[in-house]
# Entry
Amino acid sequence: MTARNLFVGGTSSNAGKSWMTTAICAWLRSRGVRVAPFKAQNMSNHSYPCRGGGEIGRSQVAQAEACGLDPEPAMNPILLKPNGNGTSQVVVHGRIWKTLSARDYYAAHDMLMREALSAYRDLASRHEVVVIEGAGSVSEINLRPYDLVNLGFATAVQAPWVLVADIERGGSIASIVGTVGLLSPEERALYRGFLINKFRGDLSLFDEGRRIIEEKTGAPCLGVFPFADDLRLDAEDSLSMEREQRRAAPLGARIAIVRLPRLANGTDFRLLDWAEWIDSPGDRAFDFVILPGTKNTLADLDWLRERGLDRWIIGQHARGATVVGICGGYQMLGTSISDPLAMESSLGGSSGLGLLPARTVLSADKVTTLRRAKTGLGTEFSAYEIHLGVTDTPVDVTPFATLDDGTREGVVRDRVIGTYLHGLFESADVCAELFGVPMSTPRSKADEYAALGAWFGRHAERVEDWLALG
# Structure
C-alpha cells in the first residue's frame, strides 16, 4: 500500500518548514497515524548517525523522533555538507558519495532524483502518511530544471502541499501572493493553502491580512500560528541556531564557544544558554573555551590562525581556562593533522595547537555511530560520532570517557579535554560535572513533541479538508 502524502513548502529559508513538518508529524502520531518524515535533499553540517548506519540531517532526526521512529537514511536520502569553498560533500543514502561543485551537482540531477524517489517509495510502502519537507523558497523558478526537493519533487509524487510564511520577517502577504503567482498549472492544482508562522500578540489582528491573501490567491488560510517560545527543537542549520546569551554566566563557569565558519553539530550546546559565541579575540577572561565540531578541520584551523584565535585560546588556557575540543575541535588541539588523501586540503596537513599529545590522520572512511559512554567520574550519557580520521594518543594519557564496550575515548590533560563524542553537553548531568553548575533536567524530547503536536492541533484550521487523513 502506498502512503498518502503532504508537502510542506516555504516562502523563504528559515520560514518554519522544519518546525511545521515536525509539528504535523507529532500531531498525526497523536491521532494514531503511522507517519514518517521525508526530505529529498538537505543542506546542513548538522547531522546525526542512524542506528543502522549512515547519517542524515538533524531536522529529519527530530521529525523521526516526533513520529516515534528511529531515524534512517530513507528519510533524507541526499545530504549536502558545505565545505565552504564552493563545493559540498554529497551524502547519498547516508554514505559519502562525492564532493561536487554546484554546477556538477546540478548535472547529476536525474540520477539523484531517481535515488530520492526510490527512498520515498520505500518509506511510503511502510507507513500510512509521509510528510515531505521542502527547502528554501519554493518559488526559485530559475532552479526548476534542477529541483529535486521542492515542487519538482511534490509534483513527481503528486503530493498536495501547503505554504509556510514567517510573519516575523515582514512581507508575508507579498511573499505568499508572489509565490502563488509563480506556480505552474500542475503546481497550482496541488496547492491547498497557506500557514502564517510566528505571530506575536492577538491572532485576530491578522484577520484582514488573511482575507486579502485568500482573495488574491484563491486558497484558504490554514492557520495563524503564534510564536511558541516555550518549545525547543534542535536547529537544522546555523541560520536558525541562537547565538545570544539567554542568561548571565554562573560564577566560575564563563564559557566561550568559538563560532567556526564551518561549524558542525552546533546542537551540542543547546543547554549552555549562558555561553558566549565568539569569532575574534578579546580581553575578557573565560573559565572554559570550547572548540566545536567542524566540517573542515584544516580550513577552520587556518581561519583560527588568520584571526589570531589560536594564540587567544592558548593564552586563555595559560590564564587558567579549561579548553574543550569536540570532534574537529579535538583534532585541532593536538600536535598535528595529516591529510595524505587530500580529504580536506591539498597541502598534506598542518600542525595543531599543541595543547594535547594527539596526532590525527584523516582518511576516506567516515565514522558514523551512536555511543553510550561514562566520564571518568562515572556520569553516564548518550553520544554519537561523525568524523573523518583517526586520532592517536600515548597509551598513558587519561581518557575523557569509557565507551560501553570498554574502549577508552578522548584525552584529559592539564585542563584540556579532547573528545569525538558529540552530544555530551546535551546531558544535564555531564554539564553539571564539567562546569560545576547545577543544571535542571530539561523537558524530555517526547514531552516536547507532544506539546508541539498539541500546539499545532489548537491552531490549525480545516485540517480534515487539507490533510484528508480522517
Q: What stands out?
A: Confidence is low (pLDDT under 50) at residues 238-245. Residues 4-232+447-467 form a domain with the Rossmann fold fold (CATH 3.40.50.300). Residues 43 and 94 are 13 Å apart (CA to CA).
